[in-house]
Amino acid sequence: MILLDGKKVAAEKRAELRETIAQLQAAGKRAPKLAIVIVGHNPASETYVANKIKACGEVGIEAEKIAFEADITEQQLLAEVSRLNHDATIDGFIVQLPLPEHISETTIMSAIDRRKDVDGLTPENVGRTVQGLPSIISATPRGIRELLAYYQIPTEGRHVVVIGRSNIVGKPIAMLLMQRPYLSLPSMSAASLGDATVTICHSKTRDLKSICLTADIIIVAAGCPKLLTADMVKEGVTIIDVGINRVDGKLVGDVDFENVAPKAAYITPVPGGVGPMTIVSLLQNTLQAYMLKGER
Amino acid sequence: MILLDGKKVAAEKRAELRETIAQLQAAGKRAPKLAIVIVGHNPASETYVANKIKACGEVGIEAEKIAFEADITEQQLLAEVSRLNHDATIDGFIVQLPLPEHISETTIMSAIDRRKDVDGLTPENVGRTVQGLPSIISATPRGIRELLAYYQIPTEGRHVVVIGRSNIVGKPIAMLLMQRPYLSLPSMSAASLGDATVTICHSKTRDLKSICLTADIIIVAAGCPKLLTADMVKEGVTIIDVGINRVDGKLVGDVDFENVAPKAAYITPVPGGVGPMTIVSLLQNTLQAYMLKGER
Predict the structure, then answer these.
(1) Are A270 and A144 within one domain?
(2) In this complex, is the C-beta atom of B42 within 8 Å of any C-beta atom belonging to chain A?
(3) Mutation site for B-interface testing, chosen from A165, A166, A218 by largest number of B Cβ within 10 Å
(4) Is residue A286 a part of any domain in this protein?
(5) Residues of A with Cβ-Cβ distance to B202 under 8 angstroms
(6) What is the SS3 assignment for A5?
(7) What ipTM does the predicted assembly reach?
(8) Are A32 and A287 in contact (CB under 8 A)?
(9) How many domains would you assign to chain B?
Protein backbone atom coordinates (compact mmCIF):
# COMPACT_ATOMS: atom_id res chain seq x y z
CA MET A 1 0.00 0.00 0.00
CA ILE A 2 1.37 3.36 -1.01
CA LEU A 3 0.19 6.50 0.74
CA LEU A 4 -0.70 9.34 -1.65
CA ASP A 5 1.19 12.00 0.24
CA GLY A 6 -0.61 15.23 -0.60
CA LYS A 7 1.46 17.17 1.87
CA LYS A 8 4.70 16.22 0.15
CA VAL A 9 3.35 16.69 -3.38
CA ALA A 10 1.82 20.04 -2.47
CA ALA A 11 5.16 21.18 -1.06
CA GLU A 12 6.88 20.23 -4.33
CA LYS A 13 4.23 22.03 -6.37
CA ARG A 14 4.64 25.12 -4.19
CA ALA A 15 8.39 24.99 -4.73
CA GLU A 16 7.81 24.80 -8.50
CA LEU A 17 5.45 27.76 -8.34
CA ARG A 18 7.88 29.76 -6.22
CA GLU A 19 10.66 29.15 -8.74
CA THR A 20 8.51 30.01 -11.75
CA ILE A 21 7.35 33.24 -10.16
CA ALA A 22 10.89 34.14 -9.06
CA GLN A 23 12.05 33.66 -12.64
CA LEU A 24 9.28 35.87 -13.95
CA GLN A 25 10.24 38.58 -11.53
CA ALA A 26 13.93 38.18 -12.30
CA ALA A 27 12.94 38.84 -15.91
CA GLY A 28 11.37 42.11 -14.84
CA LYS A 29 7.76 40.99 -14.80
CA ARG A 30 5.38 41.76 -11.98
CA ALA A 31 4.18 39.05 -9.58
CA PRO A 32 0.78 37.42 -10.12
CA LYS A 33 -1.93 38.92 -7.95
CA LEU A 34 -4.95 37.27 -6.35
CA ALA A 35 -7.81 39.14 -4.70
CA ILE A 36 -10.01 37.44 -2.14
CA VAL A 37 -13.40 38.91 -1.40
CA ILE A 38 -14.90 38.02 1.96
CA VAL A 39 -18.30 39.12 3.24
CA GLY A 40 -19.11 39.11 6.94
CA HIS A 41 -17.20 37.39 9.72
CA ASN A 42 -17.86 33.66 9.41
CA PRO A 43 -14.97 32.22 11.49
CA ALA A 44 -14.38 29.26 9.17
CA SER A 45 -14.27 31.59 6.16
CA GLU A 46 -11.86 33.91 7.98
CA THR A 47 -9.54 30.95 8.60
CA TYR A 48 -9.74 29.72 4.99
CA VAL A 49 -8.99 33.18 3.67
CA ALA A 50 -6.06 33.63 6.06
CA ASN A 51 -4.64 30.27 4.92
CA LYS A 52 -5.00 31.18 1.27
CA ILE A 53 -3.25 34.51 1.79
CA LYS A 54 -0.45 32.79 3.66
CA ALA A 55 -0.07 30.22 0.87
CA CYS A 56 0.13 33.01 -1.70
CA GLY A 57 2.91 34.65 0.27
CA GLU A 58 4.90 31.42 0.34
CA VAL A 59 5.13 31.24 -3.44
CA GLY A 60 5.37 34.93 -4.26
CA ILE A 61 1.79 35.58 -5.35
CA GLU A 62 0.56 38.95 -4.19
CA ALA A 63 -2.71 38.62 -2.29
CA GLU A 64 -5.26 41.28 -1.48
CA LYS A 65 -8.05 40.68 0.99
CA ILE A 66 -11.18 42.71 0.27
CA ALA A 67 -13.53 42.53 3.23
CA PHE A 68 -17.14 43.68 3.39
CA GLU A 69 -19.58 43.70 6.25
CA ALA A 70 -22.48 41.24 6.07
CA ASP A 71 -24.92 44.02 5.21
CA ILE A 72 -23.43 44.74 1.78
CA THR A 73 -26.13 44.56 -0.89
CA GLU A 74 -26.05 42.19 -3.83
CA GLN A 75 -25.87 45.24 -6.08
CA GLN A 76 -22.79 46.55 -4.27
CA LEU A 77 -21.09 43.17 -4.36
CA LEU A 78 -21.86 42.86 -8.09
CA ALA A 79 -20.26 46.26 -8.60
CA GLU A 80 -17.14 45.02 -6.79
CA VAL A 81 -17.05 41.89 -8.98
CA SER A 82 -17.32 44.09 -12.05
CA ARG A 83 -14.51 46.33 -10.78
CA LEU A 84 -12.27 43.29 -10.21
CA ASN A 85 -13.16 41.91 -13.65
CA HIS A 86 -11.80 45.11 -15.15
CA ASP A 87 -8.84 45.76 -12.84
CA ALA A 88 -5.79 44.92 -14.95
CA THR A 89 -3.57 44.54 -11.87
CA ILE A 90 -5.67 41.59 -10.61
CA ASP A 91 -5.02 38.28 -12.38
CA GLY A 92 -7.64 36.30 -10.57
CA PHE A 93 -10.06 36.61 -7.70
CA ILE A 94 -12.35 34.53 -5.59
CA VAL A 95 -15.44 35.32 -3.60
CA GLN A 96 -15.29 33.25 -0.43
CA LEU A 97 -18.49 31.26 0.11
CA PRO A 98 -20.92 31.09 1.81
CA LEU A 99 -22.42 34.54 1.25
CA PRO A 100 -25.15 36.05 3.46
CA GLU A 101 -28.62 34.83 2.63
CA HIS A 102 -29.78 38.05 1.00
CA ILE A 103 -27.13 37.65 -1.72
CA SER A 104 -27.54 35.06 -4.49
CA GLU A 105 -24.32 33.06 -4.76
CA THR A 106 -25.37 32.03 -8.25
CA THR A 107 -25.76 35.61 -9.38
CA ILE A 108 -22.39 36.61 -7.95
CA MET A 109 -20.53 33.59 -9.32
CA SER A 110 -22.05 34.02 -12.76
CA ALA A 111 -20.81 37.61 -12.88
CA ILE A 112 -17.14 36.69 -12.50
CA ASP A 113 -15.09 36.88 -15.71
CA ARG A 114 -14.15 33.27 -16.42
CA ARG A 115 -10.57 34.29 -17.17
CA LYS A 116 -10.21 35.53 -13.60
CA ASP A 117 -12.32 32.78 -12.04
CA VAL A 118 -9.46 30.98 -10.25
CA ASP A 119 -11.95 28.96 -8.20
CA GLY A 120 -13.23 27.54 -11.51
CA LEU A 121 -16.82 27.71 -10.32
CA THR A 122 -18.48 29.99 -12.87
CA PRO A 123 -20.97 28.20 -15.13
CA GLU A 124 -18.88 29.18 -18.14
CA ASN A 125 -15.72 27.55 -16.75
CA VAL A 126 -17.67 24.46 -15.75
CA GLY A 127 -19.23 24.25 -19.20
CA ARG A 128 -15.84 24.64 -20.87
CA THR A 129 -14.43 21.88 -18.67
CA VAL A 130 -17.32 19.59 -19.62
CA GLN A 131 -16.88 20.37 -23.31
CA GLY A 132 -13.15 19.66 -23.11
CA LEU A 133 -12.17 23.26 -23.83
CA PRO A 134 -9.29 25.00 -22.05
CA SER A 135 -10.66 26.16 -18.72
CA ILE A 136 -9.78 26.90 -15.14
CA ILE A 137 -10.54 23.76 -13.14
CA SER A 138 -11.83 24.07 -9.62
CA ALA A 139 -9.35 23.45 -6.85
CA THR A 140 -10.21 19.99 -5.52
CA PRO A 141 -10.62 18.24 -8.89
CA ARG A 142 -7.41 19.87 -10.06
CA GLY A 143 -5.64 18.66 -6.91
CA ILE A 144 -6.91 15.10 -7.37
CA ARG A 145 -5.63 15.05 -10.94
CA GLU A 146 -2.23 16.35 -9.85
CA LEU A 147 -2.01 13.65 -7.21
CA LEU A 148 -2.93 10.85 -9.62
CA ALA A 149 -0.45 12.17 -12.17
CA TYR A 150 2.33 12.52 -9.60
CA TYR A 151 2.01 8.88 -8.60
CA GLN A 152 1.62 7.84 -12.25
CA ILE A 153 -1.76 6.21 -11.69
CA PRO A 154 -3.36 5.75 -15.10
CA THR A 155 -7.07 6.24 -15.64
CA GLU A 156 -7.52 5.16 -19.26
CA GLY A 157 -10.08 2.39 -19.56
CA ARG A 158 -10.25 1.97 -15.80
CA HIS A 159 -13.48 2.07 -13.84
CA VAL A 160 -13.63 5.15 -11.62
CA VAL A 161 -16.45 5.36 -9.10
CA VAL A 162 -17.17 8.84 -7.77
CA ILE A 163 -19.27 8.96 -4.60
CA GLY A 164 -20.88 12.37 -4.21
CA ARG A 165 -22.29 14.74 -6.81
CA SER A 166 -21.36 18.20 -5.53
CA ASN A 167 -20.66 21.04 -7.94
CA ILE A 168 -17.19 21.54 -6.49
CA VAL A 169 -15.94 17.94 -6.45
CA GLY A 170 -18.10 15.08 -7.69
CA LYS A 171 -19.46 16.46 -10.93
CA PRO A 172 -16.25 18.10 -12.23
CA ILE A 173 -13.89 15.23 -11.34
CA ALA A 174 -16.29 12.78 -13.01
CA MET A 175 -16.34 14.88 -16.17
CA LEU A 176 -12.56 15.35 -16.22
CA LEU A 177 -11.69 11.68 -15.80
CA MET A 178 -14.33 10.52 -18.26
CA GLN A 179 -13.42 12.63 -21.21
CA ARG A 180 -10.72 12.53 -23.84
CA PRO A 181 -7.54 13.94 -22.35
CA TYR A 182 -7.08 17.56 -23.26
CA LEU A 183 -3.42 16.89 -23.93
CA SER A 184 -1.80 13.63 -24.86
CA LEU A 185 1.67 14.05 -23.49
CA PRO A 186 4.43 11.48 -23.61
CA SER A 187 4.90 11.56 -19.82
CA MET A 188 1.87 11.50 -17.59
CA SER A 189 0.67 14.91 -16.55
CA ALA A 190 -2.59 15.92 -14.93
CA ALA A 191 -3.88 17.10 -18.30
CA SER A 192 -3.20 13.71 -19.88
CA LEU A 193 -5.52 11.90 -17.48
CA GLY A 194 -8.96 10.88 -18.65
CA ASP A 195 -10.54 8.16 -20.78
CA ALA A 196 -11.91 6.40 -17.68
CA THR A 197 -15.27 4.70 -17.45
CA VAL A 198 -16.91 6.75 -14.72
CA THR A 199 -19.86 5.93 -12.45
CA ILE A 200 -21.32 8.69 -10.31
CA CYS A 201 -22.98 7.49 -7.11
CA HIS A 202 -24.80 9.50 -4.45
CA SER A 203 -27.36 9.31 -1.69
CA LYS A 204 -29.97 7.80 -4.00
CA THR A 205 -27.70 5.04 -5.28
CA ARG A 206 -29.13 1.64 -4.44
CA ASP A 207 -26.32 -0.89 -4.44
CA LEU A 208 -23.25 1.16 -3.66
CA LYS A 209 -21.30 -1.85 -2.45
CA SER A 210 -21.56 -3.92 -5.62
CA ILE A 211 -20.70 -0.89 -7.75
CA CYS A 212 -17.65 -0.06 -5.62
CA LEU A 213 -16.48 -3.67 -5.83
CA THR A 214 -16.02 -3.22 -9.58
CA ALA A 215 -14.02 0.00 -9.21
CA ASP A 216 -10.32 0.41 -9.97
CA ILE A 217 -10.33 3.90 -8.49
CA ILE A 218 -12.80 5.25 -5.92
CA ILE A 219 -13.13 8.96 -5.22
CA VAL A 220 -15.21 9.61 -2.11
CA ALA A 221 -16.58 13.08 -1.54
CA ALA A 222 -19.73 12.51 0.44
CA GLY A 223 -18.98 14.07 3.82
CA CYS A 224 -19.87 10.91 5.72
CA PRO A 225 -17.31 9.23 8.03
CA LYS A 226 -16.57 5.55 7.35
CA LEU A 227 -18.91 5.50 4.36
CA LEU A 228 -16.46 3.32 2.44
CA THR A 229 -15.60 0.12 4.28
CA ALA A 230 -13.25 -2.76 3.51
CA ASP A 231 -15.98 -5.11 2.29
CA MET A 232 -16.83 -2.58 -0.44
CA VAL A 233 -13.49 -2.54 -2.25
CA LYS A 234 -11.48 -5.01 -4.25
CA GLU A 235 -7.80 -5.75 -3.70
CA GLY A 236 -5.48 -3.28 -5.41
CA VAL A 237 -7.95 -0.40 -5.57
CA THR A 238 -6.86 3.25 -5.53
CA ILE A 239 -8.73 5.38 -2.99
CA ILE A 240 -9.01 9.17 -3.04
CA ASP A 241 -10.70 10.40 0.12
CA VAL A 242 -12.00 13.96 -0.18
CA GLY A 243 -14.01 13.86 3.05
CA ILE A 244 -13.16 16.13 5.94
CA ASN A 245 -15.20 15.26 9.00
CA ARG A 246 -14.58 15.99 12.64
CA VAL A 247 -15.29 12.94 14.82
CA ASP A 248 -14.50 13.06 18.54
CA GLY A 249 -12.33 16.09 17.91
CA LYS A 250 -10.31 14.22 15.28
CA LEU A 251 -10.20 14.93 11.55
CA VAL A 252 -11.30 11.92 9.51
CA GLY A 253 -12.27 11.30 5.90
CA ASP A 254 -15.14 9.34 4.35
CA VAL A 255 -13.13 6.10 4.28
CA ASP A 256 -12.66 3.54 7.07
CA PHE A 257 -8.95 4.05 6.53
CA GLU A 258 -7.66 1.48 9.00
CA ASN A 259 -9.46 -1.42 7.37
CA VAL A 260 -9.54 -0.24 3.75
CA ALA A 261 -5.87 0.72 3.49
CA PRO A 262 -4.50 -2.86 3.66
CA LYS A 263 -6.54 -3.76 0.54
CA ALA A 264 -5.59 -0.64 -1.41
CA ALA A 265 -2.69 -0.19 -3.81
CA TYR A 266 -2.84 3.58 -3.24
CA ILE A 267 -4.78 5.60 -0.71
CA THR A 268 -4.87 9.20 0.49
CA PRO A 269 -4.62 9.87 4.22
CA VAL A 270 -6.92 12.39 5.90
CA PRO A 271 -5.52 14.84 6.77
CA GLY A 272 -2.55 15.22 4.46
CA GLY A 273 -4.06 13.82 1.26
CA VAL A 274 -6.37 15.84 -0.95
CA GLY A 275 -6.55 18.80 1.45
CA PRO A 276 -3.06 20.22 0.88
CA MET A 277 -3.50 19.81 -2.88
CA THR A 278 -6.58 22.01 -2.86
CA ILE A 279 -4.85 25.19 -1.74
CA VAL A 280 -1.95 24.63 -4.10
CA SER A 281 -4.47 24.29 -6.94
CA LEU A 282 -5.73 27.79 -6.23
CA LEU A 283 -2.17 29.07 -6.54
CA GLN A 284 -1.67 27.14 -9.78
CA ASN A 285 -4.92 28.55 -11.12
CA THR A 286 -3.80 32.07 -10.27
CA LEU A 287 -0.54 31.58 -12.13
CA GLN A 288 -2.50 30.08 -15.04
CA ALA A 289 -4.75 33.15 -15.18
CA TYR A 290 -1.68 35.39 -15.04
CA MET A 291 0.04 33.50 -17.86
CA LEU A 292 -3.03 33.60 -20.08
CA LYS A 293 -3.53 37.28 -19.50
CA GLY A 294 -0.46 38.37 -21.37
CA GLU A 295 -0.42 41.64 -19.46
CA ARG A 296 2.50 41.38 -17.11
CA MET B 1 -42.14 -4.77 -24.70
CA ILE B 2 -43.43 -1.25 -25.18
CA LEU B 3 -42.19 0.87 -28.06
CA LEU B 4 -41.22 4.41 -27.04
CA ASP B 5 -43.02 6.11 -29.88
CA GLY B 6 -41.15 9.35 -30.42
CA LYS B 7 -43.18 10.16 -33.49
CA LYS B 8 -46.43 10.09 -31.54
CA VAL B 9 -45.06 11.93 -28.50
CA ALA B 10 -43.46 14.59 -30.70
CA ALA B 11 -46.79 15.11 -32.48
CA GLU B 12 -48.51 15.64 -29.12
CA LYS B 13 -45.80 18.03 -27.98
CA ARG B 14 -46.15 19.97 -31.24
CA ALA B 15 -49.90 20.18 -30.72
CA GLU B 16 -49.30 21.55 -27.18
CA LEU B 17 -46.88 24.12 -28.55
CA ARG B 18 -49.27 25.14 -31.30
CA GLU B 19 -52.03 25.67 -28.78
CA THR B 20 -49.87 27.65 -26.37
CA ILE B 21 -48.64 29.91 -29.14
CA ALA B 22 -52.16 30.37 -30.53
CA GLN B 23 -53.31 31.44 -27.08
CA LEU B 24 -50.46 33.91 -26.78
CA GLN B 25 -51.37 35.41 -30.12
CA ALA B 26 -55.06 35.44 -29.27
CA ALA B 27 -54.05 37.50 -26.24
CA GLY B 28 -52.40 40.01 -28.55
CA LYS B 29 -48.80 38.90 -28.10
CA ARG B 30 -46.43 38.39 -30.98
CA ALA B 31 -45.33 34.90 -32.05
CA PRO B 32 -41.96 33.54 -30.85
CA LYS B 33 -39.23 33.94 -33.44
CA LEU B 34 -36.25 31.71 -34.19
CA ALA B 35 -33.36 32.67 -36.45
CA ILE B 36 -31.22 30.00 -38.09
CA VAL B 37 -27.79 30.95 -39.35
CA ILE B 38 -26.33 28.73 -42.04
CA VAL B 39 -22.92 29.12 -43.64
CA GLY B 40 -22.11 27.57 -47.01
CA HIS B 41 -24.07 24.91 -48.85
CA ASN B 42 -23.52 21.61 -47.03
CA PRO B 43 -26.46 19.53 -48.36
CA ALA B 44 -27.12 17.80 -45.02
CA SER B 45 -27.16 21.16 -43.25
CA GLU B 46 -29.51 22.58 -45.86
CA THR B 47 -31.90 19.69 -45.22
CA TYR B 48 -31.72 20.05 -41.44
CA VAL B 49 -32.38 23.77 -41.65
CA ALA B 50 -35.31 23.26 -44.02
CA ASN B 51 -36.80 20.70 -41.60
CA LYS B 52 -36.40 23.04 -38.66
CA ILE B 53 -38.06 25.90 -40.50
CA LYS B 54 -40.92 23.63 -41.53
CA ALA B 55 -41.36 22.44 -37.92
CA CYS B 56 -41.47 26.05 -36.72
CA GLY B 57 -44.21 26.81 -39.22
CA GLU B 58 -46.29 23.88 -37.97
CA VAL B 59 -46.49 25.27 -34.43
CA GLY B 60 -46.64 28.97 -35.20
CA ILE B 61 -43.04 29.92 -34.46
CA GLU B 62 -41.74 32.49 -36.90
CA ALA B 63 -38.48 31.33 -38.48
CA GLU B 64 -35.88 33.36 -40.30
CA LYS B 65 -33.10 31.74 -42.29
CA ILE B 66 -29.93 33.80 -42.44
CA ALA B 67 -27.59 32.37 -45.06
CA PHE B 68 -23.97 33.27 -45.66
CA GLU B 69 -21.53 32.07 -48.26
CA ALA B 70 -18.70 29.80 -47.06
CA ASP B 71 -16.17 32.60 -47.42
CA ILE B 72 -17.63 34.70 -44.61
CA THR B 73 -14.91 35.56 -42.08
CA GLU B 74 -15.04 34.61 -38.41
CA GLN B 75 -15.12 38.32 -37.61
CA GLN B 76 -18.17 38.85 -39.82
CA LEU B 77 -19.97 35.85 -38.36
CA LEU B 78 -19.20 37.08 -34.83
CA ALA B 79 -20.70 40.44 -35.77
CA GLU B 80 -23.86 38.65 -36.91
CA VAL B 81 -24.03 36.69 -33.63
CA SER B 82 -23.69 39.95 -31.74
CA ARG B 83 -26.42 41.54 -33.83
CA LEU B 84 -28.75 38.59 -33.11
CA ASN B 85 -27.88 38.73 -29.41
CA HIS B 86 -29.15 42.30 -29.36
CA ASP B 87 -32.10 42.00 -31.74
CA ALA B 88 -35.17 42.18 -29.49
CA THR B 89 -37.41 40.64 -32.17
CA ILE B 90 -35.40 37.37 -32.10
CA ASP B 91 -36.12 35.10 -29.12
CA GLY B 92 -33.56 32.50 -29.94
CA PHE B 93 -31.16 31.53 -32.68
CA ILE B 94 -28.93 28.70 -33.72
CA VAL B 95 -25.83 28.53 -35.86
CA GLN B 96 -26.05 25.36 -37.89
CA LEU B 97 -22.91 23.23 -37.54
CA PRO B 98 -20.49 22.32 -39.01
CA LEU B 99 -18.89 25.63 -39.94
CA PRO B 100 -16.16 26.04 -42.56
CA GLU B 101 -12.69 25.17 -41.28
CA HIS B 102 -11.45 28.75 -41.11
CA ILE B 103 -14.09 29.58 -38.48
CA SER B 104 -13.73 28.34 -34.90
CA GLU B 105 -17.00 26.72 -33.83
CA THR B 106 -15.97 27.18 -30.22
CA THR B 107 -15.47 30.90 -30.67
CA ILE B 108 -18.82 31.31 -32.39
CA MET B 109 -20.76 29.17 -29.91
CA SER B 110 -19.21 30.95 -26.92
CA ALA B 111 -20.34 34.30 -28.31
CA ILE B 112 -24.04 33.40 -28.29
CA ASP B 113 -26.07 34.93 -25.45
CA ARG B 114 -27.10 31.95 -23.32
CA ARG B 115 -30.65 33.27 -23.08
CA LYS B 116 -30.99 32.97 -26.87
CA ASP B 117 -28.97 29.75 -27.13
CA VAL B 118 -31.87 27.47 -28.05
CA ASP B 119 -29.44 24.72 -29.07
CA GLY B 120 -28.19 24.74 -25.45
CA LEU B 121 -24.60 24.31 -26.60
CA THR B 122 -22.86 27.41 -25.21
CA PRO B 123 -20.42 26.63 -22.39
CA GLU B 124 -22.46 28.81 -20.06
CA ASN B 125 -25.66 26.84 -20.67
CA VAL B 126 -23.81 23.55 -20.32
CA GLY B 127 -22.23 24.74 -17.06
CA ARG B 128 -25.59 25.87 -15.73
CA THR B 129 -27.08 22.49 -16.61
CA VAL B 130 -24.25 20.72 -14.78
CA GLN B 131 -24.65 22.95 -11.74
CA GLY B 132 -28.39 22.30 -11.65
CA LEU B 133 -29.30 25.91 -12.49
CA PRO B 134 -32.14 26.85 -14.83
CA SER B 135 -30.75 26.51 -18.34
CA ILE B 136 -31.63 25.73 -21.90
CA ILE B 137 -30.96 22.04 -22.43
CA SER B 138 -29.69 20.83 -25.77
CA ALA B 139 -32.19 19.19 -28.05
CA THR B 140 -31.42 15.48 -27.85
CA PRO B 141 -31.04 15.26 -24.05
CA ARG B 142 -34.20 17.30 -23.67
CA GLY B 143 -36.01 14.96 -26.05
CA ILE B 144 -34.83 11.87 -24.17
CA ARG B 145 -36.10 13.31 -20.90
CA GLU B 146 -39.46 14.14 -22.44
CA LEU B 147 -39.75 10.60 -23.75
CA LEU B 148 -38.91 9.01 -20.38
CA ALA B 149 -41.35 11.31 -18.62
CA TYR B 150 -44.12 10.66 -21.13
CA TYR B 151 -43.91 6.91 -20.53
CA GLN B 152 -43.52 7.47 -16.78
CA ILE B 153 -40.19 5.65 -16.60
CA PRO B 154 -38.58 6.61 -13.29
CA THR B 155 -34.84 7.19 -12.99
CA GLU B 156 -34.40 7.67 -9.25
CA GLY B 157 -31.92 5.19 -7.82
CA ARG B 158 -31.77 3.28 -11.07
CA HIS B 159 -28.56 2.48 -12.89
CA VAL B 160 -28.33 4.36 -16.16
CA VAL B 161 -25.52 3.46 -18.54
CA VAL B 162 -24.73 6.07 -21.18
CA ILE B 163 -22.65 4.83 -24.10
CA GLY B 164 -20.93 7.71 -25.85
CA ARG B 165 -19.47 10.92 -24.45
CA SER B 166 -20.32 13.56 -27.03
CA ASN B 167 -20.92 17.17 -26.02
CA ILE B 168 -24.39 17.10 -27.57
CA VAL B 169 -25.74 13.84 -26.13
CA GLY B 170 -23.65 11.68 -23.80
CA LYS B 171 -22.25 14.25 -21.41
CA PRO B 172 -25.40 16.36 -20.92
CA ILE B 173 -27.83 13.44 -20.56
CA ALA B 174 -25.50 11.81 -18.01
CA MET B 175 -25.37 15.03 -16.00
CA LEU B 176 -29.13 15.57 -16.16
CA LEU B 177 -30.10 12.08 -15.06
CA MET B 178 -27.47 11.96 -12.31
CA GLN B 179 -28.32 15.13 -10.49
CA ARG B 180 -31.00 16.18 -8.07
CA PRO B 181 -34.15 16.94 -10.03
CA TYR B 182 -34.50 20.63 -10.70
CA LEU B 183 -38.17 20.39 -9.84
CA SER B 184 -39.87 17.85 -7.66
CA LEU B 185 -43.32 17.76 -9.10
CA PRO B 186 -46.14 15.52 -7.96
CA SER B 187 -46.66 14.05 -11.42
CA MET B 188 -43.65 13.00 -13.41
CA SER B 189 -42.36 15.65 -15.77
CA ALA B 190 -39.08 15.83 -17.63
CA ALA B 191 -37.76 18.25 -15.03
CA SER B 192 -38.51 15.82 -12.22
CA LEU B 193 -36.25 13.14 -13.66
CA GLY B 194 -32.82 12.60 -12.13
CA ASP B 195 -31.28 10.95 -9.07
CA ALA B 196 -30.00 8.05 -11.16
CA THR B 197 -26.68 6.31 -10.65
CA VAL B 198 -25.00 7.01 -13.98
CA THR B 199 -22.10 5.27 -15.69
CA ILE B 200 -20.57 6.86 -18.77
CA CYS B 201 -18.97 4.42 -21.19
CA HIS B 202 -17.10 5.11 -24.42
CA SER B 203 -14.56 3.75 -26.86
CA LYS B 204 -11.97 3.24 -24.12
CA THR B 205 -14.31 1.31 -21.83
CA ARG B 206 -12.95 -2.17 -21.20
CA ASP B 207 -15.83 -4.39 -20.17
CA LEU B 208 -18.86 -2.77 -21.72
CA LYS B 209 -20.89 -5.96 -21.60
CA SER B 210 -20.67 -6.55 -17.86
CA ILE B 211 -21.44 -2.89 -17.18
CA CYS B 212 -24.49 -2.93 -19.47
CA LEU B 213 -25.73 -6.11 -17.80
CA THR B 214 -26.17 -4.15 -14.57
CA ALA B 215 -28.09 -1.31 -16.24
CA ASP B 216 -31.77 -0.54 -15.74
CA ILE B 217 -31.68 2.04 -18.52
CA ILE B 218 -29.19 2.14 -21.41
CA ILE B 219 -28.78 5.23 -23.58
CA VAL B 220 -26.71 4.49 -26.66
CA ALA B 221 -25.25 7.40 -28.59
CA ALA B 222 -22.13 5.97 -30.14
CA GLY B 223 -22.84 6.03 -33.87
CA CYS B 224 -22.06 2.34 -34.31
CA PRO B 225 -24.66 -0.07 -35.75
CA LYS B 226 -25.47 -3.14 -33.62
CA LEU B 227 -23.13 -2.00 -30.84
CA LEU B 228 -25.62 -3.14 -28.22
CA THR B 229 -26.57 -6.79 -28.59
CA ALA B 230 -28.99 -9.04 -26.72
CA ASP B 231 -26.30 -10.75 -24.61
CA MET B 232 -25.36 -7.33 -23.15
CA VAL B 233 -28.72 -6.47 -21.55
CA LYS B 234 -30.78 -7.86 -18.72
CA GLU B 235 -34.48 -8.66 -18.94
CA GLY B 236 -36.73 -5.65 -18.40
CA VAL B 237 -34.19 -3.03 -19.43
CA THR B 238 -35.19 0.30 -20.97
CA ILE B 239 -33.28 1.16 -24.15
CA ILE B 240 -32.90 4.63 -25.67
CA ASP B 241 -31.20 4.41 -29.04
CA VAL B 242 -29.80 7.74 -30.23
CA GLY B 243 -27.81 6.27 -33.11
CA ILE B 244 -28.63 7.16 -36.69
CA ASN B 245 -26.63 5.06 -39.12
CA ARG B 246 -27.26 4.24 -42.74
CA VAL B 247 -26.62 0.55 -43.46
CA ASP B 248 -27.43 -0.84 -46.90
CA GLY B 249 -29.53 2.24 -47.58
CA LYS B 250 -31.58 1.65 -44.42
CA LEU B 251 -31.65 3.84 -41.32
CA VAL B 252 -30.61 1.91 -38.22
CA GLY B 253 -29.62 2.82 -34.67
CA ASP B 254 -26.81 1.59 -32.43
CA VAL B 255 -28.89 -1.28 -31.05
CA ASP B 256 -29.45 -4.73 -32.54
CA PHE B 257 -33.15 -3.98 -32.28
CA GLU B 258 -34.50 -7.30 -33.51
CA ASN B 259 -32.76 -9.32 -30.79
CA VAL B 260 -32.64 -6.75 -27.98
CA ALA B 261 -36.30 -5.69 -28.17
CA PRO B 262 -37.72 -8.98 -26.85
CA LYS B 263 -35.70 -8.56 -23.62
CA ALA B 264 -36.58 -4.89 -23.14
CA ALA B 265 -39.46 -3.43 -21.15
CA TYR B 266 -39.22 -0.24 -23.22
CA ILE B 267 -37.22 0.51 -26.35
CA THR B 268 -37.05 3.31 -28.92
CA PRO B 269 -37.30 2.40 -32.58
CA VAL B 270 -34.97 3.93 -35.16
CA PRO B 271 -36.30 5.85 -36.97
CA GLY B 272 -39.25 7.23 -35.01
CA GLY B 273 -37.77 7.22 -31.50
CA VAL B 274 -35.39 9.91 -30.32
CA GLY B 275 -35.15 11.62 -33.72
CA PRO B 276 -38.60 13.23 -33.82
CA MET B 277 -38.15 14.40 -30.21
CA THR B 278 -35.02 16.32 -31.12
CA ILE B 279 -36.68 18.81 -33.45
CA VAL B 280 -39.58 19.33 -31.08
CA SER B 281 -37.05 20.14 -28.33
CA LEU B 282 -35.72 22.99 -30.41
CA LEU B 283 -39.24 24.37 -30.70
CA GLN B 284 -39.78 23.97 -26.94
CA ASN B 285 -36.48 25.72 -26.27
CA THR B 286 -37.51 28.60 -28.51
CA LEU B 287 -40.77 29.01 -26.62
CA GLN B 288 -38.84 28.79 -23.33
CA ALA B 289 -36.50 31.58 -24.47
CA TYR B 290 -39.52 33.65 -25.54
CA MET B 291 -41.26 33.11 -22.21
CA LEU B 292 -38.18 34.05 -20.20
CA LYS B 293 -37.63 37.15 -22.22
CA GLY B 294 -40.67 38.96 -21.01
CA GLU B 295 -40.71 41.10 -24.15
CA ARG B 296 -43.66 39.97 -26.17
Answers:
(1) yes
(2) no
(3) A165
(4) no
(5) 178, 195, 197
(6) coil
(7) 0.93
(8) yes
(9) 2
